[in-house]
Amino acid sequence: MRCTDESLQLYAITDRRWLAGKTLYSQVEEALKGGATFIQLREKDLDEETFRREAVALKELCGKYGVPFVLDDNVKLAKEIDADGVHVGQSDMEAGEVVRLLGEDKIIGVSASTVEDAVLAEKRGASYLGVGAVFPTGTKDDASGVSMETLREICQAVHIPVVAIGGITGENLGQLRGSGIAGISVISAIFAQPDVRKATEELKKKTEEMLS
User: Fold this and answer.
1) 3-class DSSP state for residue 195?
2) 171 alpha-carbon distance from chain centroid
3) EC number(s) on record (predicted)?
4) In a domain, 1, yes or no
């Protein structure tokens, strides 16, 4: 599956902290029904076998909806289960090495917070960039802030799609209008909501308006 501007419009990252008795599978399916265009499985505290089972099931689910499915950081597992790709941070494996291990047909996302990081990631084979945190966020403790000016500069400096991430909600995403991004990446704006499908539908509509 390829990575396009359209597929990055509403990029949902999983977080099992808000399952509230439901399964991650059912939550992701609700997000897909609501219009999520890209899914990243992010698991920091699962054992490898449980993570693998979750990844295999979600890969199949995303395939049914024709939506790209990537893993956060875990290049080895992404290769093993033939996921659509992987997203790596600045402190993880660099993009060139990921491309070498997974192959050039896979989606390689890279986190960037400076123009230098962004340009280097593109040069090394990144398919898209996750840039943030564009707003304060409680989900990632280590997320440093990125100004709107830097976000615009990054979008202008690279030829690959850029996704804004960090503290984005239906209330503030309008501030990203005109920045040059292909879409937004969210966690709590979808998965922490009582009605995941409805939250996704509303966010998708607002994202489309912001990008138009």
Assistant:
1) coil
2) 20
3) 2.5.1.3
4) no
Buried b (16+ CB within 10 A) or exposed e, 129-142: bbbbbbbebebbee
Taken as a whole, the chain contains a residue count of 212
Residues ≥6 apart with Cβ < 8 Å to 185? 11, 12, 13, 38, 40, 130, 132, 163, 164, 165, 168
39 within 8 A of 57, measured Cβ to Cβ: no
Annotated binding site for Mg(2+): 73, 92
Asked if residue 55 is part of any domain, the answer here is yes
User: Domain containing 80: what range?
Assistant: 6-211
Is 16 within a domain?
Answer: yes
Torsion sign (Cα): 200, 58, 50, 46: negative
Q: What are phi and psi of 190, to 5 degrees?
A: -110, -60
Task: Enumerate the active-site residues.
Answer: 42, 111, 140
Residue numbers in the known binding site are: 40-44, 72-73, 92, 111, 137-140, 167, 187-188
